[in-house]
Amino acid sequence: MITEKLKDLIATYIASIPAATDNSEYKVGLGGNSTSPESTTLDVPITTTPSVVSAVVDGNVIEFQAIFQGSDANMTGNVIREFGIFDGSNLIARHNFQGVGPFSSTEDLEIFFTIEVE
Predict the structure, then answer these.
(1) Has this prediction a pTM greater than 0.90?
(2) CA distances from 111 to 5, 26, 34, 64 (A)
């Protein structure tokens, strides 16, 4: 059995991983197929860094937020289909979704990613 306290501690630890490094730990990509548990990277990553990131813990729930600006040359014209959170070279979470975009230079992509520790 896992206690409520351990759930809270695990959630707090997970949230601290990307926050302890920098914005480059949040990545988006063009790939959209399903995620293998053995995956170590995004399918088709693009080189862009979010302008805003945050990780908020509420008990055993973590909500990550990242805002990617369309004015970044690598975002303009692309359709984004995947989002990942990294700890250095370790992929700790990835989600593929229906493509959003293409982005113009005046649009931003705001992603909210929620993890619940059960």
Answers:
(1) no
(2) 28, 10, 18, 8
